[in-house]
Write a structure and sequence with these properties.
The complex is a heterodimer of chains A (274) and B (323). Helices cover 81% and strands 0% of the residues of chain A. Chain A has 11 helices and no strands. The model of chain A has no long low-confidence stretch (mean pLDDT 87). Chain B is globular and about 70 Å long. Chain B folds into 2 domains: 227 residues, Rossmann fold, CATH 3.40.50; 85 residues, BMC (bacterial microcompartment) domain (Alpha-Beta Plaits, 2-Layer Sandwich). The longest helix of chain B is centred in the middle third of the chain and has 16 residues. In chain B, β7, α6 and β8 form a beta-alpha-beta unit. In chain B, α3 packs across α4. The mean pLDDT of chain B is 90. By secondary structure, chain B is α/β, with parallel strands linked by helices. Classes of the chains: A mainly alpha (274), B alpha/beta (323). At the A-B interface, α1, α5 and α11 of A face β1, α2, β6 and α3 of B. The complex binds adenosine-5'-triphosphate (ATP) and magnesium ion (MG). The site of adenosine-5'-triphosphate has 12 residues of chain B, from β1, β2 and α1.
Amino acid sequence: MQVWKRCEMKIFANNLRLFWQGTVLSYVALFAWFRPVTYAASKVLMPLAQIIFFTYLGSYATGKDSVDFYVIGNAIQITAVSGIFGVTFSISGDRWNGTLPYLFGTPANRMMMFFGRAFMHIIDGALGVVIALTWGALLFGVDFSQTNLSALGLTILVTTISTCGLGLLMGCLSLITANVMFVNNTVYFLLLIFSGANVALDTLPPWMQTFSQVLPLTRGIASARTLISGGSFAEVAPLLISEIGIGLLYGWLGYLLFKWFEIQAKRNGSLETV
Amino acid sequence: MNSIEVKNLKRIYRATIGVIRRTVKEVIAVDDISFEIKEGELFGLLGPNGAGKTTTVKVLATLLIPNAGEVKVNGLDVVKDANEVRKHIGFIFGGERGLYWRLSGVDNLRYFASLYHVDPEVSKKRIPYLLELVGLKGRGNERVQGYSRGMKQRLHVARTLLHDPDILFLDEPTIGLDPVGAREFREVIRDLQSEKKTILLTTHYMFEADSLCDRVAVIDKGLIVAMDTPSALKRHVSDLSVVEVETFGVAPKVVDQIRELSFVDAVSVRDQGQRQLILVQTPLGAEAVPAVMSALNGMRVGRVTVREPTLEDAYVRLVGGKE
Ligand SMILES: Nc1ncnc2c1ncn2[C@@H]1O[C@H](COP(=O)(O)OP(=O)(O)OP(=O)(O)O)[C@@H](O)[C@H]1O
Ligand SMILES: [Mg+2]
């Protein structure tokens, strides 16, 4: 019994380490060509650019009192950069590096290998949102005095996780098709429109609204808007539960696709076709 | 005991060609191959381009599912017990791909150590040891993108030894290495051999196979055409001598004419920049020289020598002098 327990512990510790190392290294591999200063600058300035652009554009078109709407929508939308592009690059990197045969030749737990690729982007994405909201407060006077900040923090985390879930699925597609950038850009712009970041959902035709409901981000943005305008945690809890559910569903589909890809590649001998 | 058993292995690739009228083309990469490798043995797999060597190695390394046949590593089936097999094997496919270019050498090794479940305490000591073994001491913290091709290949060797596997598959490990690097690499292989590791090596360098391998199999078009010790294979051609003629710009047609001479067994041409070395295998030895010279028909000819056959000559005869 004791022995069995120690063995289980060891496997668990191993998997945790694999997850962590994959996380850190895939992140380093992705951003190592940035010098820390460049990285920090892009991290601070990119949200600024997105917020300014869409907030001025949006409030010019619809009137001044809607500033909060655009700031919050676009701030949360920032998660899609890490979630979709970051995660996809972390996975497609294995294709470009030709590391897939070597990865699949190891006895490593595929789930840890796979989800480890996304973890750091969750932190990265959440940080981006916080920076964007800070810009919103500084430049556009978004008021957080009525906000349940811990609930907002949870909203940011949950939304980032769910976009990363979609990113994992997109990342897997990048193993199968070479047109990653095309697919990613399309998804990114679909999110920009359908998540409600820049367009009030109730102004969209019904079929588009249905589509919005199956995307990550939609409920996260709604939740953040509710919380910042003084809503309670109880009000947004159902939104958050659905948001994380959607994210996990996409992540899980991604994982299934990843497993399928491995089996297919071993059957067809297509492991290193770029 | 046998570390590796391959029984009637067959692997077909299907490739769809054409965009509009799609047709499926089948390539029989490995037709019917059987061999066994004993524990601690260094076994060479030789054969011309496209013979099916890499395909065989991929099946052994659990990266490709065979269409037919049975492949066992340490008694474990490579399809059914793939994950267990992976713990006992290491493998390299020659060339520089397969590393994270933006990570340092050490970080690459760290990541693969975790993929192989190497204890962190163990890998902390093992990584510097391996870097030294493969001659990358002091370069480990540099990013792989700045490594030369040879350095990347050395890193691959370190990578595949992280979990101290007792079976190694090395597919053209010395391809693209400079002569000194290749020699150092062969020393590493000899060290591994003396550690009683079972090694399957594929190579196009016959002297390499001759000097390292306990046994070799020559495969051609997915079939084994000979399997024996290097010296036994050389004995196959011991009745022959090799006439080497140095030429300057010989036409393929002329080579074909020599090949058709009644006393000629096999002909191969080795390009050496401006010059080509024509290698003619014949039982006549020196007596064949005049006839070969007249086939060359007054062309400018350099050095002409007659020598004993090597493993390469045995190989050329087996695969029909195509290389
Ligand atoms: N992924 C693949 N898809 C389709 N055909 C393939 C694939 N890999 C190899 N082949 C074909 O299978 C045959 C055997 O290839 P393999 O790579 O095993 O040869 P090899 O003996 O390793 O040759 P080389 O000495 O050139 O490395 C070749 O005809 C090759 O074109
Ligand atoms: Mg090959």
